[in-house]
Amino acid sequence: MKKILLSILLSVPFWVLGQGFQVNLQGQKQIGMAGAGSALALDEASIFYNPGAVSFLEKNSVSAGVNPLLFKSVFQQAGSNISENVKNKIAPPFEFYAVWGPKSNKWKLGLGVYTPFGGLVDWGDNWSGKYALTSLNLKAIYFQPTLSIKITDQIGVGAGFVYNHGDVNLQRALPVNYPDGRSGKATLEGTGSGYGWNAGLYIKTLSNVTFALVHKSKVITKLDGGTATFEVPNSLTTSFPAGSTFTAELPLPATTTLGIGIPLSSKTLLAFDASWVQWHIYKDLSFDYSTNTSALADTKSARNYRDGSSLKLGINHQATEKLALRAGIGYAFSPVQDGYVTPEAPDADRYILSAGAGYSFTSKFEVNASMFFEDVKSRTQKNIETGLNGTFKTLVYAPGISLTYKW
Amino acid sequence: MKKYILNSFIAATILFAASCKPEIETLAGTTAGQANFSKYIAVGNSLTSGFADGGLYLEGQKVAYPNLIAAQMATVGGGAFTSPFFTDAQANGSGYLTLSALVNGSPTLANVTTNLAYRDATHLTKYTGEVQNLGIPGMRVDLAFAAPFSAANPYLERLLTDTQVGTVSYFQFIQGRNHTFFSLWLGNNDALGYATNGGVTTDATNVLTDKSTFALLYSNLVNALTVGGQKGIVGTIPDVTSIPYFNTVTVAALLNAAKAINPAAAAIYIQTGANTSRIATAEDLIRLPFQTAGLFGVPNALGYFYGLDPRNPIANNWVLDRDEVLKVKDYVNSYNSSIMSLATSKGLAIADTYAYLNQIKTGIVIQGVGINSSFITGGAFSLDGVHLTPRGNAVIGNVFIDAINLKYGSTIPSIDITQYRGVKFPDNK
User: Fold this and answer.
1) Which chain B residues are Cβ-neighbours of A179 within 8 angstroms?
2) pTM assigned to the model
3) Closest among A397, A407, A370, A355 to A65, alpha carbons compared
4) Which of A54, A142, A214, A405 has the greatest count of CB atoms below 10 A from its CB?
């Protein structure tokens, strides 16, 4: 059986963990395993990873965690000898889960609040790509009430409704100069919302090998009435009217994951996830301004993402009754095509490395910690729209910790 | 155990937060290749001197393209680069134009008249000392060999001793400077002077230099600059029709303005070089200063409106008419083929500014900045419609750097154009 599984594993096409501005930090145990775990009924984070596995959880629980994320990117203009780094800012992806169900019944209810997409990049106001972007702060917070049902002792299904609260603040310099020579600036800020769903199937075979099939739908997030603020010399205020608003749409992609869980021993679990992220819906980033002038036209910047994918392999080892140790590796293929790399998401294919540990202080109280590292490959690109020409290299560090109470 | 986990977690966090910056390996700024940049001199005209906004002033001098290039050369063994800067007290040099207001999108220009560098009505304050930026506004290939011109041109006059004035030509002035590398971007004025005078020749500064004379004199310049086997770069001459000076006041714009006042206005009339009056077409180029000259539409004694009646056409000197455009283009092409064949035979790098400025006329986007040849809004050309803004200088500087790197295998780092401004907009309403 294990041999067959292995061959399935190896034959899985190179699906990727699409990245872009996807944040794969949704549960400390799974993060410690490089983000694999859709086929494991490990804990309440299954609300995100696989609603179908939630009904297989033995206990009710609540947990909350955070992953202070450091996105360290460096840029060097083509032909330049100067490297420019993003400022040290810590993005706070977080997660909260609650699972509850009567012990004797075959169903469980869950609620997940988590941040599956986001970005925090601040290149400063005077870097060489300032006219493309100076900073982006993007947050998507998903609220997901979930129902999971154990159909048989082998099969669980679950589904959740997703409400997204999105928040964006995008700033860039404008190439118009004040009398003292400094540049103008545009700030676009808004909140929006969108809806979607998350459904999963969990299958536990007689050999205790588990399978998962999970689909998270796309969530089209609409921003209406965002504010556009322009700092320009006063003589240009008729061209950049004050009180401008804009509408925009940010499509967040669907993700389909196929997962396998293999018990190597009574204490050691292996998990493998292959995900396919349908980023192709992110065709352009458009801003439709309430007032247009000759200098301020609606913009439609092509993004032309292709689908992304990822492969993640994780291991969970129960070292002692109270201590669990985890590790994982992964590889993700970027959805950003050549010519479309931007400083807002200087994306490229990436390696993932992770480690984690969990400790049960009592049967009810548990702490889990993780360390997540991504090595995004160096990428030299000239953007088709902005002409921004140079090399990006990014490293991502995200330590994380969560507290869980079970009963 | 609990302590162990917590401690290692905290330690790991601190470690990662503090260190592990991503790095990019770079080759730029490491080698001079086959060239030697220890003493670079720049030969040229107003573009080389940093002339902008209709004047030569300190801010423009500092961002002249040779100065920007020299700063980049410093990382590959380039030495100091000296320019005949005006002092801070006389920073406004010859005076220049500023944009004082935008009224319904129309620019109002004003003259800066404070802190000028005149020692009398026509002469600028003398500059003594080492000079490596040898750009002289108004310099032409033909006049570079005319000693009397050094007395007539105030920008060259200020760099000469009293005994040299009128007796030393620009050609002599640039020699004997022990340079190791040079740039030569000269010849624009041999065509531009004629063009900006509407195709009318009134004196030596608006003659269209004879093609073979140009080739001969240009080779004399190159020979003098390479006399010690020095390497260098030459720049081609831009197409005069690519600059805002000839593309802002269009026939269509004038006609629209006339129609706004008198809907019956049907055509714009110009006096051509052949001294005939005819209806203007889009191929006839009207000079930028015409918009502020106050001539258009004014009736003469017989009641004919200027430019709107065949009996009172726009005068010849305001218009580079279709035939003159073709003539200028033909001369520029000829000058450029002389420059290129000479540079090729001497093994020099070529900055093809002709090709590049034609690209800018269409519009290009560099590092997030759209750049085109539109007056004021295009960002590349200053308020005189002929000379470059600091941003335009940075862009052209990179054209030179790319050509030098390509020719000599050097890795002079490129100039970050986003650090340089376009036209300054007034902050008053």
Assistant:
1) 424-427
2) 0.90
3) A370
4) A54
Determine the distance in angstroms separating the CA of A178 from the nearest CA of chain B, rounded to an integer.
5
CA distance B180 to chain A (A): 23
Mean pLDDT of B147-176: 96
Q: Which residues pair with A169 in a beta bridge?
A: A137, A189
Planar angle of CA B240, B242, B243, nearest 5 degrees = 80
Query: Is residue B258 over pLDDT 50?
Result: yes
Are B419 and A387 a contacting pair at CB < 8 A?
Answer: no
Give me the pLDDT at residue B50, please: 97
Contact A374, A346 (CB under 8 A): no
Q: What is the dihedral angle through the alpha carbons of A236, A238, A241, A246, rounded to the nearest 10 degrees?
A: -100
Count of alpha carbons within 13 Å of B101, Cβ hemisphere only? 5
**Chain A residues touching residue B401 (CB < 8 angstroms):** 79
Dist CA B357 CA A373 (whole Å):
47
B18, closest residue in chain A (CA to CA): A88
- Residues A148 and A188 sit within 8 Å (Cβ to Cβ): no
How far is the C-alpha of A180 from the C-alpha of A157, rounded, in Å?
A: 64
- The token duo for B89 is 């007290």
Calculate helix-pair angle for B322-346, B211-225, nearest 10 degrees.
Answer: 30
- The helix (run of H) or strand (run of E) holding residue A51 is helix A51-54
> Please, which residues bridge with residue B248 across strands?
none
pLDDT in the model for residue B75: 94
Q: Using only C-alpha atoms, what is the Rg of chain A?
A: 22
Q: Are B390 and B63 in contact (CB under 8 A)?
A: yes
Give the pLDDT of residue A2: 46
- Output DSSP code: residue A279: G
pLDDT value, residue A14: 33
Taking CA atoms, what residue in A is nearest to B26? Answer: A81
C-alpha A336, offset from chain centre: 15
- How much helix, strand and coil, in percent to the nearest 5, is found in chain A? 5, 55, 35
Q: Say whether B22 and A74 touch across the interface (CB within 8 A).
A: yes
Phi-psi region of A165 (alpha: psi -120 to 50; beta: other; left: phi over 0): beta
CA dihedral for A119, A123, A124, A126, sign (positive or negative): negative
| Pairing, β B181-185 against β B231-235 | parallel
Q: Does A72 touch chain B (CB under 8 A)?
A: yes
Amino acid at B429: K
Q: How far is the C-alpha of A135 from the C-alpha of A65, rounded, in Å?
A: 26
- The mean pLDDT value for B399-413 works out to 97
Q: What band does B156 get if pLDDT is binned at 50, 70 and 90? A: very high
Which residue is listed with tokens 């502020």? B292
CA–CA distance, A348 with A331 (Å, rounded to integer)? 11
Among the listed residues A65, A76, A5, A109, the one whose alpha carbon sits nearest the alpha carbon of residue A400 = A65
Q: Indicate whether A16 pLDDT > 60.
A: no
Instruction: Please give the ipTM for the structure prediction.
Output: 0.88
- What residues have CB less than 8 Å from A315, skipping those under 6 apart? A33, A264, A268, A269, A270, A271, A326, A327, A328
| CB-facing half-sphere around the CA of A234: CA atoms within 13 A | 6
The DSSP code for A101 is -
Q: For an interface test with A, which of B418, B419, B420, B428 has the most A Cβ atoms less than 10 Å from its Cβ?
A: B418
**Which residues are A139's β-sheet partners?**
A118, A167
Collect all residues with Cβ–Cβ distance below 8 Å to A278 and sequence separation of at least 6. Answer: A18, A218, A253, A254, A255, A256, A307
Q: Which helix (H) or strand (E) holds B333?
A: helix B322-346
CB–CB of A387 and B368 under 8 A? yes
The per-residue pLDDT for B10 is 61
Is residue A392 within 8 A of residue A340, CB to CB? The reply is no
- The closest alpha carbon to A248, from A207, A217, A285, belongs to A285
To the nearest 10°, the Cα dihedral for A123, A124, A125, A131?
A: 0
